[in-house]
Each structure stands twice: as C-alpha cells, then as structure tokens.
Amino acid sequence: MFLLWQHNKTSYDSVDAAQDAVKDPKVTTKESPFKEISYVEERSKTHHYTLTYPKTGIKAVDDAMKKSIYAKRDAFLASNATRFHATVSATTSGHYISFLIKNDVFLPTKQVESSVQTFTYNRQDKKLVTLKQFIKTEARLNRLSKEIRTEIQRQNDHLQWSAKKIDHLTQDTWETFADFGLDGKNFTVYYGPHTLANHLSVISIPITAINKKRDTTVFRLNTHDKKYVALTFDDGPNKTVTPRILETLKKHDVKATFFMLGSSVEEAPELAKEVLKEGHEIGNHSYGHENLSKMTGVEAEANINKANQLIKNATGQEPLTIRPPYGARNAELEQLSAQPMILWGVDTLDWKTRNAASTLKEVQQHVYPGAIVLMHDIHPTTADALDAVLTYLQQQGYTCVTVSQLEGLQ
Ligand code: ZN
Q1: Both 303 and 276 in a single domain?
Q2: Catalytic residue at 172?
Q3: Which of 60, 188, 194, 204 has CB 3.0 to 4.6 Å from 181, enough for a Cys bridge?
C-alpha cells in the first residue's frame, strides 16, 4: 500500500496521464493460463471501453479473433451506449481451448446488455475450429440439435418458450450453434440476448450425448415434407386403460411405443403380448418405477435386466430401448446400458392434469416434427383424450411412428 501511495505522490502520475492522452487506447499484455498465449488488454479512456482478448502469436488466428472483437467495439462506438467491456475466459477440452469473450454494453438506461463471442482454438494444428470441423457429420449435427432441444424443453418449466420458438432456435444448421464452447465434459451453446430470453442464455449438454451410437440414421428434424411424431405410453400395461388405448390406436391405424414396468408385465403378461401383436413397440421402464440414477451401477443394471427378462418372458422379445423413470439417468447408467435411453420432447402432463381436454391442448401447443410425446396408459383420461389427439395429428399431416423408427434404430 505504501509503495503505491508513494508512486502516486510522484509527478509520474501526471506524466502517465499525459502519455495516456497521447496513447489512447493504451495496450498492455498480460499472462494467460496457457504458456504460448497471452491476453491483450486495450483500454480507451476517451471512448470508454476496455477489451481483453487472447493472442496466440499465430497471425491468421489473431487476425480472425481481432476482426470479430473489433466489430463489436465499432458497433458500440457507433451506438449511444455509454461504456463497453469485453472480458475473456477460457476452458479446455483435450487439445482445444475455448475462449469466451463476454461483451457488456452499458446502455444509457443504465442497463447492461451482455452477449458473447466464442473461439475454439486447436493447440495442435494452431487453427481456429468451426462447429463443422468439430461436429463433422450431419448426423451428429442432427443429434446435437435434438439434445439441445431436449435440454431446452427440460428447462421449459413454465412453458415460457413456445414449441415454435424452440424449433426455430434448435434448427440443425451449422449457424444455429456457431457460438459454442467445450470444457472437457460439456458442449455449451450460447444464445444472445433477445433470442431465447431477453438476456444471454447458456445451454449445456454432455459431449458424449453427441456421440451416441443411435445417431447414425435419425430422421431429420424440421423436414417440412415429412412430419413424424412418436407417441409413447408409460407405466403400463394396465388392465383397464391399455386395451382402450390399443383400440383407439387401431381405429386410426397408428403404431406407438409402450414403456412398460417389469412389475406390471408380471401381473398382466397377456396384455404385453397383445401390445406387441398389434404391431407396437415395447420399451423398458424399470422394474417398479425406481429412480435408477440413485442406485449403484450394479443395482440399476440388475433392475433393468429383471424388467428386460419379464418382458421377454411375456412377449418373446427383449425391449429395444429404455426410458428411465422420471427421465433420471447418470453417466454410469448410460454407459452400462446396451439399450438406448429415450426421453421425450413433449410432456402432455396427462399424469398431472388428468383431464382429456388438457392433454389434447398440450399436444396441440407443443408438438413439432420429430417430437417424442409422453403419455401414460394408466390414466382413463389419457384414453379419453387419445382419439382427439390422433385426429388432430392426422389433420396436421403427422405420421405416427414408433420410437425406434423415429430414432432410426429399425
Ligand atoms: Zn413412468
């Protein structure tokens, strides 16, 4: 403290200010967490901005980053905003470094509007990496789009985002997810202000989700020439509701997927057999609706195997897929499981509302091409709603398929 005070007491202070006046912006170089990279700080007193950005020493890389960062600065200079701060942070994933430049623009209303710019740098070949270079194939892009969509739907508690908006913001194009970052475990997408929300939004999914085996031949989302939807019925078979569901599906000549509980199949094996005989698909929904993510890997595997076996005993076929109760899964469970885990994109909330009109309304409001729709064949109100749901879907030009057909497993 004393040293600083003494320093300020000298006339150096005014020399410094004079130099600043001449050299504006003032540029200083700082250390970064990476030995071959430095951070450059550029501070302009006259124009009220501070920029911090990485410098790799590779001209093409540095020029590209600077160009994009300066474009933001110039937009600020041309605006009526009062201050501009760009700060840098970084995460690593193997030989990639993801730089995140956070731009804070101070508006005359004193509000701060934040947006981000991302750069992913390959330390090995000393180049910036685009989304396309990282994701490589259209099938993986499609999988990425589906996983991001599912994550947004999962966060859509208050139904603050319409299906149409989510559909638009998760289109499987290379531009949609251009602002991305990697941190070793997660793939993160950034949505700027006034897109997903008024503020900056951050959506992360595990990188492993993009690499699933089942990403080979998925139906493309947003193909407006063909609209597929997969209806799924959980928690059965149920002696009173399941036969009613089967009858309505038959009336509309539609195939669906039933995620059955091993314990319920044990009680009504003939019903499980009937479902398969009608051409529908059966999936595993655990033995007795346990939260598999709270078990050890060995316990979860035993639970899944028990249900697989009961379904096979009843129907002659082992289920192709698993839907973990509550959608609860963890990385260990996903690795252990030979069957793909299937969640959903549209929750009809039939389990909560127990009202046929509400169930229909949820479908009408949230269905999108490629959606997996969650319902339950244990509530009579779901059976009440189904005829109208199928009529609506057919009017809208949807073709109902099973989950495996939708996911390209069959
Ligand atoms: Zn369930």
Answers
A1: yes
A2: no
A3: 188
